[in-house]
């Protein structure tokens, strides 16, 4: 079967160089060979996170990382404020509830971002041990202004634990964990980090370590055990790690560093702008406001009578995978992921498929208009 072009909210495309790095025998994890690769990956992750904190690695998708954070940080009946602007914000709250945490919600209509003023108002009403917040809400294509939100939080509460889901943002936009005083930030390998799914990465601040007990409820996800592994002269993990994925992730991070983080961020912005312009040229409207639309994924309103599932399957027939909306947005939007290993060539391929699908669906479009727009926007 031919490879398809994934322009989805994850998993995303993996560069050939990363695939090759993975295609070798496992390196034993209690050896210097592995320790060097693991250390090299960790140093680069710290750079991407913008932190001096330990970044812990677990074999999991992003949700596993979110659950690990909750299991280590909170106890039943701890009070937590969960800020939700979509599917992933809701998921974080549900995880905490499952652990018996006393969760209050600050929820927004899907398609909108969270406001720092609302967060502050809620923090003034009740004392919370932690706040859960999504950086980039992949379900709606909306990015929260995490810098302003963190700054506002710290103005009213200097010891609340700020826990950020940066699963779809880290590596594509700045996250600046230390500068924003974020206590725990979670990301995963399969979005902007250009690696297959299976690794979750979690940074933990000094403030957070103080509240992590020596015996968290979970054995496998014990942050202290993971930290001990990182403190060894030859770092390792408490249990057998996902060795091949770590080798791959290290390679992908090397590619990011070679390109330069600032250049990577700029590339994401330019690709997002070109995507939006191309969609507009075809007459589509974006789901999110321009001011908080995501540089990593674009959500598009389905015009009246537009059959999203037919559209997606026509696009898929051209070898391009896009996604629809989740929950009540099903049938109402479709989403184009443009994070990680993304470039002009991929974008052109995607829009070629989109145009073909539209023609097949009977839309009267000027053929090649979106490709021309991309060509003009991305120089
Ligand atoms: C993808 C994603 C997750 C985690 O999903 P997994 O499928 O478990 O990796 C969490 N939050 C956001 C914002 C995401 O985009």
Automatic annotation (TrEMBL):
Any one of the GO BP annotations: glycine biosynthetic process, by transamination of glyoxylate
Domain Aminotransferase class V: 6-327
Cofactor list: pyridoxal 5'-phosphate
Molecular function in Gene Ontology: alanine-glyoxylate transaminase activity; L-serine-pyruvate transaminase activity
Residues with PTM N6-(pyridoxal phosphate)lysine: 191
Protein residues bound to substrate: 335
Pfam families: Aminotran_5
Keywords: Aminotransferase, Pyridoxal phosphate, Transferase
Record family assignment: Belongs to the class-V pyridoxal-phosphate-dependent aminotransferase family.
Stated name of the protein: Aspartate aminotransferase
């Amino acid at each position: 079967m031919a490879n398809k072009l994934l322009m989805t909210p994850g998993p995303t495309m993996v560069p050939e160089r990363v695939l090759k790095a993975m295609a070798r025998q496992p390196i034993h994890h209690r050896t210097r060979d592995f320790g060097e690769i693991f250390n090299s990956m960790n140093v680069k992750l710290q750079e991407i996170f913008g932190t001096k904190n330990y970044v812990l690695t677990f074999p999991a998708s992003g949700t596993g990382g979110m659950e690990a954070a909750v299991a280590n940080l909170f106890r039943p009946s701890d009070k937590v404020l969960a800020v939700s602007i979509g599917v992933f914000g809701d998921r974080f709250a549900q995880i905490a509830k499952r652990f018996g945490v006393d969760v209050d919600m600050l929820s927004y209509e899907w398609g909108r971002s969270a406001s720092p003023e609302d967060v502050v108002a809620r923090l003034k009403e009740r004392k919370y041990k932690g706040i859960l917040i999504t950086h980039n809400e992949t379900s709606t294509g909306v990015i929260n202004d995490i810098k302003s939100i963190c700054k506002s939080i710290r103005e009213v509460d200097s010891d609340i634990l700020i826990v950020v889901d940066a699963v779809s943002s880290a590596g594509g936009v700045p996250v600046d964990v230390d500068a924003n005083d974020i206590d725990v930030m979670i990301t995963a390998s399969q979005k902007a980090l250009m690696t297959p799914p299976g690794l979750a990465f979690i940074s933990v601040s000094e403030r957070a370590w103080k509240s992590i007990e020596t015996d968290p409820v979970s054995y496998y996800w014990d942050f202290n055990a993971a930290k001990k592994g990182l403190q060894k002269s030859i770092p390792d993990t408490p249990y057998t790690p996902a060795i091949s994925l770590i080798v791959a992730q290290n390679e992908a991070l090397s590619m990011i560093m070679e390109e330069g983080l600032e250049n990577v961020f700029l590339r994401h912005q330019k690709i997002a702008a070109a995507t939006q312009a191309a969609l507009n040229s075809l007459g589509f409207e974006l789901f999110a406001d321009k001011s908080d639309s995501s540089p990593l994924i674009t959500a598009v309103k389905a015009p009246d009578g537009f059959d999203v599932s037919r559209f997606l399957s026509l696009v898929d027939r051209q070898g391009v995978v896009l996604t629809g909306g989740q929950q009540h947005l099903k049938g109402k939007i479709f989403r184009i992921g443009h994070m990680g290993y993304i470039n002009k060539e991929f974008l052109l391929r995607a829009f070629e498929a989109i145009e073909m699908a539209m023609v097949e669906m009977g839309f009267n479009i000027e053929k090649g208009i979106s490709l021309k727009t991309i060509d003009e926007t991305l120089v």
